[in-house]
Amino acid sequence: MRAQAAAYDGGVPKVTRDDLVSAARNPLAFIAERWTPDPRTVRRAALAALVMAVVIVVTGGAVRLTGSGLGCPTWPKCTDDSLTATREMGVHGYIEFGNRLLTYVLCAAVGWAIIAARSQKPMRRGLTRLGWAQFWVVMSNAVLGGIVVLVGLNPYTVAAHFLATTALITVAVVMWHRVPESDAAPRPLVGKAVQQLVWAMIGACVLLILVGTVVTGAGPHAGDSSDVPRMPVDWEAVTKLHAVLAWIVVTLAFALWFVLKAVDAPAEPLRRTRDLFLILLAQGLLGYVQYFTDLPEVLVGAHMFGSCLVWIATLRVLLSLRERPADEVDMPAAAAEAPVAARS
Questions:
Q1: How far, CA to CA in Å, does 183 sit from each of 29, 124, 126, 179, 255?
Q2: What angle do CA 147, 153, 156 make, to 5 degrees?
Q3: Terminal CA-CA length for the chain
Q4: Cβ neighbour number for residue 338 with a 10 Å cutoff
Q5: Helices and strands, number each (H, E), in the chain
Q6: How far is CA 33 from the centre of its chain?
Q7: Which residues pair with 70 in a beta bridge?
Q8: Tens digits of per-residue pLDDT, 226-241?
Q9: Which long-range contacts (CB under 8 A, 24 or more apart) does 150-154 make?
Q10: What is the pTM of this model?
Q11: C-alpha angle with apex 52: 311 to 289, nearest 5 degrees?
């Protein structure tokens, strides 16, 4: 501490050669030595990464729904001769390139979450790993997005691109939920039968999302005005299957709420199950409206946003079924505060 204090003059830090070498070797450790965020800052950073993951889904849907999927016909540059969109490419080029730029914003949000998690005292390796997991999913999905363009919006690669973003949302939700918790072993709040019911609902929701990508891949919104191939399935049949799966998830959510009430479960699982049920009803209503109005682009985009909310709400139900005692995380802070309390 004395050595660090000597590096300051009048409140303005003096950066020494050793500081620069240390920052170059391990920038995260360098920042962590000089900054300790409060838990609210870390939680906001985790939430920012989650919000940007959802934004990427919505803007990616906007690219497809406006027919701008090949607005930038190559990757990683926008054209063979230009890194950015040009005036000659028109509005589709700007829409596609704008979505690519948002990837950098997503990277910045994930980077902030990693730095905030790494700088906590004491350091929580599990939380930091969740941040890095998001980073690698973003990087791999950026490459997959480039492949989507290079293969001319092949519907299978488009589906994989969406599922990778869903994986990103999954990790982001877990990190956001874990910030206020301790690193103690989780303790279940409900019995085995309730947990099994929730996992059945999770499985049905995963199937719902997978079939939803097939509905998209076989549907009319191909992402470009050119002759983009579609998945060779009966669109009407797969759409009805998607609706059946949606009703199964709704039924399981209602059954879960009823069971939680019957066993007098804690308030948090009940509240989150209620939220999921309401989101599912709104998403189902939106799905039927878009189906009977011939899939207007605005409603399809709203349905994509709703699918993100459904998955987030489902994960939050799962995560609410256990708790982690805060004693272990709070012990260092309590130990530091004890002498102060004794003196006062």
A1: 21, 8, 8, 10, 31
A2: 80
A3: 25
A4: 10
A5: 12, 4
A6: 29
A7: none
A8: 778 899 999 999 999 9
A9: 150/74, 150/75, 152/70, 152/226, 152/228, 152/229, 153/69, 153/70, 153/222, 153/223, 153/224, 153/228, 154/229
A10: 0.87
A11: 50
